[in-house]
């Protein structure tokens, strides 16, 4: 399994024209760009690499969203999973996806922690908990 880096890039006060030069450089260097929700309600990344055959889904942290998304093909990125972390871990166990999940807490912030196993993740993590489910 190859490892990558997840960058979070914001648009400042809500205007994409106000991206920083660093944000633009970061976006240009990434093979996959995760976009917010599409008009039809699906949250899917833009796949910029021909070798990637499955999509990357961005899923809100609510357990209903996780249960609905777990059967989708490809990788799921569960954003802001903190409040529903215990429920999300339970759902992943029930659906057989627990072993294929990892979590990053406080990504890019002081005290960042990477959990390769959800067994090591406390049931109530940081607000900035991001889970990757393969």
TrEMBL record:
InterPro entries: 4pyrrol_Mease, 4pyrrol_Methylase_sf, 4pyrrole_Mease_sub2, Uropor_MeTrfase_CS. Keywords: Cobalamin biosynthesis. One of its GO terms (biological process) is cobalamin biosynthetic process. Pathway: Cofactor biosynthesis; adenosylcobalamin biosynthesis. Pfam families: TP_methylase. GO terms for molecular function: methyltransferase activity. PANTHER family: COBALT-PRECORRIN-2 C(20)-METHYLTRANSFERASE. This is Tetrapyrrole methylase domain-containing protein. It comes from Ellagibacter isourolithinifaciens.
